[in-house]
């Protein structure tokens, strides 16, 4: 059964159709990748799902509930969290504080509860701390709990962002280029972590990724976007051997030269 069901999704910026009539279904507890050359519309697609942009056309349903028109925080509340292409941590906060901030979205106590430090607020705060610690341990960063996030090694900062997204207890997590800038060992660790997110937490994973080795070995299904439209969809070996997909990557001579990783399918 699909946990995420996207039908005919379209988004234009002026004359440019960044996402064009895309239909996309994600099975519950799947690990699915969205790939495509630079500018193909991948991040815009994530921005539509997470309420940052409103689509011109199309529907988005999470477990049967429509997400179109919801604000980003409401989408998180509905059960989708995400990480971003560029690291978005608060450098002057500790690893634990960064995660508690993520968990804050789920808390129900309001402004006056906080001012008055009501029982509800203290309960929520304790729960947020528990979740933060649990998620830090889950991603293997327990030892960095009280360290400023800026002092963490690069790969660990990316893991911290994943922990923060997980702290909202999502049904589905969207990872935007999680391996960007990672060395091969960090990428291997990331692969194991993504599998654990699905296997141990039961969270469905959708990732945008340019590292083809990671995509091909991790994904159960791959959707390829090109100029905003869905070019192909299928199992990793089907996508890898699809002549249209090869053309989309290699046909852009500049992309093959500048982004060698992308060109190697
Ligand atoms: N807010 C915006 N306003 C105008 N154009 C935009 C906006 N956001 C994205 N675009 C355009 O939409 C197209 C798709 O961009 P998008 O960032 O979604 O691609 P991408 O596949 O994620 O690329 P990359 O792999 O380089 O991150 C690009 O031509 C981009 O310039």
TrEMBL record:
Keyword presence, Nucleotide-binding: yes
UniProt xrefs under InterPro entries: AAA+_ATPase, ABC_AA/LPS_Transport, ABC_transporter-like_ATP-bd, BCA_ABC_TP_C, P-loop_NTPase
Any GO molecular function: ATP hydrolysis activity
Record keywords: ATP-binding, Nucleotide-binding, Transport
UniProt record, GO biological process: D-alanine transmembrane transport; L-alanine transport; L-isoleucine import across plasma membrane; L-valine import across plasma membrane
GO cellular component, one term: plasma membrane
Record's keyword annotation contains Nucleotide-binding: yes
Top-level taxon of origin: Bacteria
Domain (ABC transporter): residue spans on this chain: 4-252
Name used for this protein in its record: ABC transporter ATP-binding protein
Originating organism: Deinococcus cavernae
């Amino acid at each position: 059964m699909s946990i995420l069901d996207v039908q005919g999704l379209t988004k234009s910026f002026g004359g440019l159709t960044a996402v064009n009539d895309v239909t996309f279904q994600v099975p519950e507890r799947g690990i699915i990748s969205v790939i495509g050359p630079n500018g193909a519309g991948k991040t815009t697609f994530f921005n539509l799902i997470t309420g940052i942009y409103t689509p011109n056309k199309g529907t988005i349903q999470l477990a049967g509930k429509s997400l179109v028109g919801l604000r980003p925080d409401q989408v998180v509340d509905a059960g989708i969290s995400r990480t971003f292409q560029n690291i978005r941590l608060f450098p002057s906060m500790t690893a634990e504080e960064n995660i508690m901030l993520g968990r804050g979205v789920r808390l129900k106590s309001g402004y006056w509860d906080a001012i008055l430090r009501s029982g509800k607020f203290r309960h929520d705060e304790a729960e947020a701390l528990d979740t933060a610690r649990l998620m830090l341990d889950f991603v293997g960063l327990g030892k960095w709990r009280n360290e400023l996030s800026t002092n963490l090694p690069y790969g660990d900062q990316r893991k911290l962002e994943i922990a923060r997204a997980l702290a909202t207890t999502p049904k589905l997590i969207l990872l935007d280029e999680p391996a960007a800038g990672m060395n091969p060992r960090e990428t291997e660790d990331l692969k194991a972590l993504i599998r654990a997110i699905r296997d141990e937490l039961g969270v469905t994973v959708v990732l945008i990724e340019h590292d083809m080795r990671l995509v091909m070995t991790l994904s159960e299904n791959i959707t390829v976007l090109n100029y905003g439209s869905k070019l192909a969809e299928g199992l990793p070996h089907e996508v890898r051997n699809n002549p249209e997909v090869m053309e989309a990557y290699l046909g852009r001579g500049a992309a093959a030269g500048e982004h060698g990783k992308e060109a190697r399918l």
